[in-house]
Amino acid sequence: MTSSSAQFEDIKLLEEKLKRGNLPQELYNKANAAIERLVRLTNSSAYSQEYDQVSRFLDWRTSLPWNKRSLDILSLENAKKTLDTNHYGLEYIKERVLEYISVIILKSNENTSKTEKIPQQLGQKAPALLLVGLVGTGKTTMAYSIAQALGRKFGRIPMGGMGDALQLRGRSKAYPDAEPGQIMKVLRRVETANPVILLDEIDRVTDNAKADIMGVLVELLDPEQNSRFLDHYIDFPFDLSEVFFIATANNTAGIATAVLDRLEFIEMPSYSDEQKIIIAKNYLLPRAIAATGLSNEDLEFEGEIWQQIVRPLGFDAGMRTLDRTINGICRKVAKLKVAGNFNKITLTEDNMKKYIPVW
After folding, report:
1. Strands 71-73 and 117-119: what pairing?
2. Mean of pLDDT values over 341-349
3. pLDDT tens, 201-230?
4. Average pLDDT of span 253-275
5. Which InterPro entries does the annotation name (predicted)?
């Protein structure tokens, strides 16, 4: 095959990809113009570099979910069941979430059964929440649960340590190292225009880039602005008004007032010892037993020792230390089981020091 024939085949592939891309008309015209410019360069030494740029650029544009949406599960019963399965207590927070889902149901203007899946109505503005609480209080898992309750795709953007607003906004294709920002990357990954996107730890962006990043967050979270969000690399407005944004933070001190004004504030409370014990028995221990390959018949905890397991190293507001402790106990039991001569382990005040890990 001659060089010109290979170039012709390459351009034909780009044209076919463009036709399948289902792009907005204006964006289609821009992409088509780029391909026509490439045709004029077929006999030029600049063809190879130009082809790589156009191919990558077209690949990103056609991979975004311009008109693709998932179906919401508009059922309070399903949402409540999902939240109760994933989280113990937190009734106030669950009630707030159910209120938001109720608004979505009413706005759908559909008189259908509670369990039927209904397409989200075009033009409907999604809420933006801010979950604030100490480490380990369940902010991230609550965001997962909200997405699961609605039946939406989920994407996470870690904001902690982010040092450049271009990581969200993207870099113009005029630069050699140009690429889209995290928002477009998440949308491409989830393949829907109405996912739940978690902006994790927005209070922990670097100080030198805070002003710029907060400016982008205002545009992302403001329902009057996010319908035409412009990523510098894609270079065409994308409608984010149907994205359900959930931000998390340990506190609000590092968050700009303008960003706070565009978020619904929900506080994630600390857990009491009694709540931790219930969560450990009903959620953490069964999960740790399954994760380590044990069975329920291999390990038992006497009720009296739970108070000491909850606070082996003192008190923390969340569940992470307790979760690590329970997993450490299960791993020690798993090692004994693999080594042989194993009988059921019952954790008591007399033997617990043998099994509680020392950090």
Report:
1. antiparallel
2. 86
3. 999 999 999 999 999 999 999 988 899 999
4. 89
5. AAA+_ATPase (IPR003593), ATPase_AAA_core (IPR003959), Lon_lid (IPR054594), Lon_Prtase (IPR027065), P-loop_NTPase (IPR027417)
Q: Which two tokens stand for residue 267?
A: 């506080």
Cα–Cα dist 61/77, whole Å: 38
Right CATH number for 71-267 from 3.40.50.300, 3.30.470.20, 2.60.130.10, 3.30.450.40?
Answer: 3.40.50.300
Kindly tell me the number of DSSP H helices and DSSP E strands found in the chain: 15, 11
How is residue 93 written in tokens? 């927070």
Positive or negative, the CA dihedral 251, 256, 259, 265 is: positive
For 291-322, what is each residue's pLDDT tens digit? 999 998 999 998 888 888 887 655 677 788 88
Confirm if 123 and 306 have CB atoms less than 8 A apart.
no
Give the whole-angstrom CA distance, residue 257 versus residue 51.
45
How remote is the C-alpha of 224 from its chain's centroid? 23
Of the options 2.70.70.10, 3.40.50.300, 2.60.40.2660, 1.10.8.60, the CATH number for the domain spanning 273-355: 1.10.8.60
Q: Residue 102 above 60 pLDDT?
A: yes
pLDDT higher than threshold 70 for residue 93: yes
Q: Where are the beta strands (DSSP E) in 120-176?
A: 128-132, 154-158
319: Cβ contacts below 8 Å, ≥ 6 apart: 136, 137, 138, 271, 276, 279, 284
Other beta carbons within 10 Å of 142: 24
User: Quick one: tokens of 293?
Assistant: 């390959």
Sheet strand arrangement including 244-249: 154-158, 196-200, 244-249, 128-132, 264-267
Choose among 115, 27, 33: nearest CA to 66. Answer: 27
DSSP structure class, residue 203: G
Residue 285 pLDDT grade (very low, low, confident, very high; cuts 50, 70, 90): very high
Domain boundaries, the chain: 3-63, 71-267, 273-355
Question: Which element (helix H / strand E) includes 248?
Answer: strand 244-249
Exposure string of 31-56, with b = 16+ CB inside 10 Å and e = fewer, is bbebbeebeebeeeeebeebbeebbe
Q: Provide the pLDDT for residue 123.
A: 42
